[in-house]
Amino acid sequence: MKKVILVLILSKIAMAAIPNKAVLQPQNTLELLNLKFEKRKQIVETNLDFYKNELEKIAFQKEEHLSYRWRALTSLARIYKTDSVPYLEKALKSTDWFMRDAALKSAKELNLEQLNSWSLKALNDPALVVRTTAVKNLSFLNKNENRSVLWKAISDKQNFKNSQSLWVRKHIALALSDASSKINKETLQSENSNWIKLLSDQDKKIQEVAAENLAKNNDLYFSEKLSFQLKKQNILDWWKQQ
């Protein structure tokens, strides 16, 4: 019995003698990118210069899988903040849509003016996903001065395919709607004609956003039981009288 107790005591002492490594280093940077972000960040911060170069290599290595390239670029932005701007600018010029998209999504980690500038340019990106991210960024920024650009974008030919509305247009309508709380009544009412046009849009969801804004901006009240078609007709009748 005494021998058993002695063995247990000695084993505990031996375990205590083993140094506890606070940060377990991965075998390579790809393994690092498989870790959850907080753990990844903790490791990167042990050697910032080394990992900055490693992450840049992976982000712009064409042969690498897109998931690793995405994580590498977003890690640069989230960890290195403004020091990552040159990498994001490079990614925005990439021929790979997912790199441009990753750069736009990561830009929220930086200066908001930078985010606004990049997102406005990306409204004309050839990739629908990238344009949608740009619209979501502009909605997040909620700047009045961007409204004219968004109104133009919702009618832009590139946001239709074979005359059919693409999903980015719904996000543009929502961005215009969400920002309306910051605008004075007079300005909102000057946009009535734009919303009236959207009330006849081929996209039912855009029609609904238009109806909601016309009612809200002009103090029009309808019964909750009223069908959308009747509500729409009432708004059109009201508009004819203006």
What this model shows, in words?
The chain is an all-alpha fold and 242 residues long. It folds into 2 domains: 32-110, Leucine-rich Repeat Variant, CATH 1.25.10; 123-242. Helices cover 65% and strands 2% of the residues. The protein contains 15 helices and 2 strands. Strands 1-2 form a two-stranded antiparallel sheet. It starts with a helix and ends with a helix.
How many structural units, i.e. domains?
Answer: 2
Report strand order across the widest sheet: 1-2
Largest sheet: 2 strands, antiparallel
Oligomer: single chain
User: How many distinct helices?
Assistant: 15
Structural class by secondary-structure content: mainly alpha
Outline type: elongated
Beginning-to-end CA distance, first to last residue: 99 Å
Along the chain, the helix and strand elements come as HHHHHHHHHHEEHHHHH
β content, as a range? under 5%
Summarize model confidence as the mean pLDDT: 88
How many runs of DSSP E, i.e. beta strands?
2
